[in-house]
Sequence to fold (167 residues):
Amino acid sequence: MKNYLFIFVFGAILLVGCASTKYTYRQIENDNDSFTNRVFKCSMAELHKAVTQVLMTKKFTIDHEDATNGTLTGSRYFTHGYQKIVVVVQSKILSKNDKEQQLFLNGVQTTQRNYVADRTRFLLWIIPLPGGGGREVTESKESEFVISDKPFYDDLFNNIQESLATT
Fold:
């Protein structure tokens, strides 16, 4: 009887392990977002300066910047009640030649929620006791997704083009 129980539990664990989503990496092959990159006719330094200027104008905080490799990461924080929304934009510049640069942008939005737990101890549920617990704040991630909104990227690319035209 114990052997049957062991085989049943082992079989159930094996089936649960095999029920996971397979071949998620194949979604990468199906992503053909051509609107996340654009070619600009300028030098790498000029394009990097324009990308930095546009992100700073849109109130992004520059988290990482490497002008020699053409990478830049900026983030912007929003709060709505107990929610904190973080939008991160990553950019990479690939040089085609001296006067043509290809800019790739990638945006990720993360939503986090703060939970407040009151640990105060009460006497008869009315009178707070001294030294009782206080409040505890915990933060949990609700969602994270890649921004696939074409107008979002078009707006950034158009602002970068305008910034290049003024310099």
About this structure: The mean pLDDT is 81. Strands lie at 37-40, 61-66, 71-80, 83-97, 100-118, 122-123, 127-128, 135-146.
